[in-house]
Write a structure and sequence with these properties.
The structure holds 2 protein chains of 2 kinds. By secondary structure, chain A is mainly β. Chain A has strands at about 5, 10-15, 20-25, 30-35, 45-50, 55, 65, 75-80, 85-95, 105, 110-114. The model of chain B has no long low-confidence stretch (mean pLDDT about 90). The chains are: A mainly beta, B mainly beta.
Chain lengths: ~110, ~110
């Protein structure tokens, strides 16, 4: 049981480039989330999904897009990378939105935009 | 969701109990207190949660005051591997809206 898998672990982008951060979970969780964590700060919610085909904005969605075509996958797309998007990105999943035990986090993607 | 206040950092000797406080004076009746920790920039890890009764599991104990305005996470025998940032979060039990982690308490466990 792999849990939540994120790829890549590290990436350097040039300003204006685009990329997709991949997130896959094998726990059949309905809810999935993308967070970013800037140095010395807590996590901030970017986007979340309550099921396949349904996504919604979190606290800091600007500059990002998501899709949820399957229960397992929740990719995060950066279209025009900016230095302000340098951060560590965490994907998480939970069952039915329940917070009990239910938030399983991936190991993160460290993104640097130069 | 109610906001929380935690000390930015704490130290604890290995083998001793680590007591991490959290103030949540604006907590509402249906909101739970949750604790997560983040070890060295890994993804956060669930520790424990409670509503109004004290709770204990294999990782920690959670003591919630009677007025529910504050709580304490207790790691009974801290080890070096417990060095992490600990987040106290207050929110309802369901829903997928914002999960406010704040900046947490950086606990450093040191060898005697």
């Amino acid at each position: 049981n792999a849990g939540v898998t994120q790829t890549p672990k590290f990436r350097i982008l040039k300003i204006g480039q685009s990329m997709t951060l991949q997130c896959t979970q094998d726990m059949n969780h309905n809810y999935m989330y993308w967070y970013r964590q800037d140095p010395g700060m807590g996590l901030k919610l970017i986007y979340y999904s309550v099921g396949a085909g349904i996504t919604d904005k979190g606290e800091v969605p600007n500059g990002y897009n998501v899709s949820r075509s399957t229960t397992e996958d929740f990719p995060l797309r950066l279209e025009l990378a900016a230095p302000s998007q340098t951060s560590v990105y965490f994907c998480a999943s939970s069952e039915q939105g329940l917070f009990d035990y239910g938030y399983t986090f991936g190991s993160g993607t460290r993104l640097t935009v130069v | 969701d109610a906001k929380t206040t935690q000390p930015p950092s704490m130290d604890c000797a290995e083998g001793r109990a680590a007591n991490l406080p959290c103030n949540h004076s604006t907590i509402s009746g249906n909101e739970y207190v949750y604790w997560y920790r983040q070890i060295h920039s890994q993804g956060p890890q669930y520790i424990i949660h409670g509503l109004k009764n004290n709770e204990t599991n294999e990782m920690a104990s959670l003591i919630i005051t009677e007025d529910r305005k504050s709580s304490t996470l207790i790691l009974p025998h801290a080890t070096l591997r417990d060095t992490a940032v600990y987040y106290c979060i207050v929110r309802g039990q369901t829903g997928a809206n914002n999960l406010f982690f704040g900046t947490g308490t950086r606990l450093t466990v040191y060898s005697l």
